[in-house]
Design brief:
Blueprint: E1 2-8, E2 16-22, E3 29-38, H1 41-49, E4 57-58, E5 63-70, E6 82-85, H2 94-97, H3 107-111, E7 123-125, E8 128-130, E9 143-147, E10 151-154, H4 160-163, H5 169-181, E11 188-192, H6 196-207, E12 212-216, H7 220-228, E13 232-234, H8 241-249, E14 253-258, H9 263-271, E15 273-281, H10 293-298, E16 302-305, H11 313-325, E17 335-339, H12 343-352, E18 357-361
Parallel strand pairs: 11-12, 11-14, 12-13, 14-15, 15-16, 17-18
Antiparallel strand pairs: 1-2, 1-4, 2-7, 3-5, 3-9, 3-18, 5-6, 6-10, 7-8
Helix pairs in contact: 5-6
InterPro entries: ADH-like_C, ADH-like_N, ADH_Zn_CS, ER, GroES-like_sf, NAD(P)-bd_dom_sf
GO molecular function: oxidoreductase activity; zinc ion binding
Family: Belongs to the zinc-containing alcohol dehydrogenase family.
Amino acid sequence: MQVTAAVSRGPDSPFTLEKVELDEPRADEVLVRVVATGLCHTDLFTKAALPRALGAAVLGHEGAGIVVDVGSRVSGVVPGDHVILSYRHCGDCDQCRSAGPAYCVDAHRLNSSGRRADGSATVTQNGEPVRAAFFGQSSFAEHVLATADNVVVVDRSVDLAAAAPLGCGFQTGAGAVLNVLRPGSDSSVVVFGAGSVGFAALLAARSVGVATLLAVDPVPARRALAEEFGAVAIDPGSQDVVAAIRAATGGGATHTLDTTGIPAVIGQALSCLRARGSAVVVGLGAPEVTVNIQDLMLNGKTLRGCVEGDSSVQQFIPQLLALHADGKFPYDRLVTEYRFDDINRAVADQAAGTVIKPVLVW
């Protein structure tokens, strides 16, 4: 079927809305009409990393929409269902079987290869394959093909535009707190980078009654919103970040989360921890970071990575929706909606820090 998609043709080119051909759903696939898709840093990181020589690509991995059709082997999803789309996993490897689907051994092939697992294309243009199937969806398009493992059925009362980022960004930040750091009410949680992932982490920490919340970000508007949510806001441009955190937490934080991927910031996230504190990194950035091993070892600190909030989406996304319904996780306050033909303005606004979470709506 012919659909409109926001196509990337190289790291330096803007997205362009173009007609492409979406394959018919196979027996294990789900056809979804996209209502909204979140714009995530991972989309832009991937766009920047794909050489122009690889040709056209359709990205997008925070889709939400309505099921149009399902293949004969699909169960638990029917036409008319409202759904949130997330990452793919095989369901059979040791990681998937041990409740670690975000670390599926087949994750790259299923989420980042640009094609189906068998190598076939889901999207073509003028008879030529288009790099797609991103996170098993490529939801910068009017319609997408997904599979039962990355489709989460939600109540029809859910605002799909506001909830779309639960597929990645919001679940990453919230999951890093709720599934990995697991702070108690007497904990102190510091988030480095108050973007959509960082704010989701702050809201998640607040939802479990964390006593002391801190947000480090250079953008005044983001610091102001963090303060509205009950956090101490720190300006890295004018304050000694580590000293300010130690002063606000009585000697050091119990938990920190880096969303920036910046080596110097990760160093701060470790340095400001008190003894036996834990730091988690979720941001894509420089591949190498220098760590003070003496500080890490002698103080019993922990540093670990986290993908997709260590979440199993069929359980965790409904958990976040329940927190939202109870008023404990107001993710809708982070969202700014854009029409899909304004995708490049959304990219620019996100880069400028004038919005927290752009969501593209058809």
